[in-house]
Amino acid sequence: MFDSEEVKKDFPLLSRRDVVYLDNAATTQKPKQVIEAVIDYYENHYSNVHRGIYTLSEEATDMYEKARENIARFVGLRDASSLVFVRNTTEALNLLSYSLGTRLESGDEILLTEMEHHSNIVPWQFLQSKGVRIRYAKLTESGLLDVDDLVSKINRRTKILSVSHVSNVLGSINPVKELCSYARDNGIVSIVDGAQAVPHMPVNVDEIGCDFYAFSGHKMLGPSGIGGLAGKPEALDELIPFMGGGEMIRTVTYESSTYADVPLKFEAGTPNVEGAVGLSAAVNYLRRLGMQNVKKHEMDLMQHILNLEDEMSIRNLRSYGPRDVTHRGGVYAFNIGNQPSFSVDDLSEDSTLARGAIHPHDIAAELNKRGIAVRSGHHCAMPLMGLLGLAATARASFYIYNGKSDVDLFMSALLEISRGL
């Protein structure tokens, strides 16, 4: 295991005494090792990549492609060419919606789950205009995916299964290897949104067996604007490009073009080389800690917070998600006070609260006064909020530089806030 207080020393921003950062599901802070890697690239190696035959360009190209190899190994890819650099998970899922959508016909179905982030809903809704139907697998009362319901919804018209590996609201960990096996047995393209998984637990995409797996660098200590779409080589080869332009071509005439091999086929324009270099440094940092240790650390924090719930009996505190931390990531969504019920049709964060409740935004503001940074709102999961009968929640989310002292401070602050009801 590792000492979160020692880890914290590597993060310049966390030396500020006025912040306890608990918004890691949104984005993570950056260690000096990542910052220094990006600075070194800018100061000593900066150039455009791939076609230059001068020294700087060759150095930059080598750093970019070695970063791809390093990140590919980290997520369990045997073939580094199976990793396409994108800006983030959202871009990866939009790429898939655009490209796979060209194959779908009216009446075809896409199967999602009720816990999905907007990034794994909205891109697929673009295809409804051509008659594609979206169906949603239900959740159990404990906040886990109802696998039996998902399997029951698979039929001959199901063409795509796209699921989150870990919910950004409930923290629920989905059995993606099992789900992708169901999809494979039924000739269905399987996609996993790994934005909340790759930073927090060991992930081996080849073992999961999905056709595509998407993740974001900024949620795993890396820079913003860099992420990955991992795919089976044959699945990537069959996709049409999402964008056209430089880098992604083999030949261009006035009449037509041919495309470069994967992954460059999907990397039009000057790439985010510094982002790839920084993400590679982030991967090295996480690898040194050990991803099993990262997962164990977050499980311990979540068990601690759930234990404190029971011990402290904070008035009107209600949290959401599985109580078994072996099936849960380090996400703690909660409210204080009786929340109103809403349908998705009238869902609004500004809706009138039930008497005696504290609005999640007010909870976040009160925590901020105490130096504690959490998120409040619908967390880009409005359909799930509607399912829970809520307009919004507050959400604390934990990472490697958070310790039990942060949890204690957070829960003590909630106790103070609840007494203001």
What features would you describe in this structure?
The chain has 421 residues and is of the alpha/beta class. The protein folds into 2 domains: 256 residues, Type I PLP-dependent aspartate aminotransferase-like (Major domain) (Aspartate Aminotransferase, domain 2), CATH 3.40.640; 129 residues, Aspartate Aminotransferase, domain 1 (Alpha-Beta Complex), CATH 3.90.1150.10. It is 36% helix and 15% strand. It has 14 helices and 15 strands. The strands form 4 sheets. It has a 7-stranded mixed sheet with strand order 2-8-7-6-5-3-4, with helices on both faces. Strand 9 and strand 10 form a beta hairpin. Helix 2 runs antiparallel to helix 10.
Provide a concise account of the structure shown:
The chain has 421 residues and is of the alpha/beta class.
Secondary structure blueprint with pairings:
Layout: H1 4-8, E1 20-21, H2 32-45, H3 55-74, E2 83-86, H4 89-101, E3 109-113, H5 122-125, E4 133-137, H6 147-152, E5 158-164, H7 176-185, E6 189-193, H8 205-208, E7 212-216, E8 227-231, H9 233-238, E9 249-252, E10 257-259, H10 273-289, H11 291-312, E11 317-320, E12 331-336, H12 360-369, E13 372-373, E14 375-377, H13 382-388, E15 393-397, H14 404-418
Parallel strand pairs: 1-13, 3-4, 3-5, 5-6, 6-7
Antiparallel strand pairs: 2-8, 7-8, 9-10, 11-12, 12-15, 14-15
Helix pairs in contact: 2-10, 3-10, 11-14
